[in-house]
Design brief:
elongated, alpha/beta, 8 helices
């Protein structure tokens, strides 16, 4: 299971982001409310990804990112911000966060970033529709498969629902074969592996 810590001075944001991530099957190991707490949580818990706000009183996101990089230069830190001053932005860029995403957050985009940055091979469930088909389907894919899946010309829409650990290896191989057929506009295999949800 992919793990994160959430660090933001706004308790409502920390709570709602944590709840949202748990619904997607992402484990929230810890919650911090300033940069010092974020750095301490990282040192203690070593999550796959740190979600870090920039603008916080006392110890800001730049402080936390600097300390986290000292502890582990290869750590995965995603800045989640409503914006930053020019001087803080320059400092953050020099510390090279993995990604910077802006509030308000799109839940699906946030989950995609976490899965991508954690290099998770854990499959997850998606919901999708094909062009000229009113039904919605679900299936389980790895992130690499999902990146290719989203590029299919026959796809109308897709979004991540939640992580799924059941029957991982067998399903992954079956889905790869189905994706190969779908790339050639043959959806019969992928539909067979999918569940109609509406």
């Amino acid at each position: 299971m992919t793990s994160v810590i959430v660090v933001d001075d706004n308790e409502d944001i920390v709570y709602s982001m944590s709840e949202l991530l748990e619904m997607y099957g992402i484990e929230v190991l810890g919650k911090g409310y300033n940069g010092l707490e974020g750095a301490e949580l990282f040192e203690k818990l070593r999550p796959d990804v740190v979600l870090l706000d920039l603008m916080m009183p006392q110890y800001d996101g730049a402080y936390a990112l600097r300390k986290i990089r000292e502890l582990d230069p290869a750590s995965n830190v995603v800045i989640v911000t409503g914006g930053a001053s020019e001087s803080l932005s320059g400092e953050i860029e020099s510390l090279e966060p993995n990604k910077i995403i802006f509030k308000p957050l799109d839940a699906n985009a946030l989950v995609e970033v976490i899965i991508e940055e954690s290099n998770s091979t854990m499959p997850f469930k998606i919901k999708y529709t094909f062009k000229n088909d009113s039904k919605s389907y679900t299936c389980v894919l790895t992130y690499e498969q999902y990146k290719n899946f989203k590029k299919l010309p026959i796809l109308e829409d897709s979004r991540i629902l939640k992580e799924d650990e059941e029957n991982v290896e067998a399903y992954k191989n079956e889905m790869q074969e189905a994706l190969n057929f779908a790339a050639k506009n043959d959806t019969t295999h992928i539909q067979r592996l999918s569940e109609i949800v509406s």
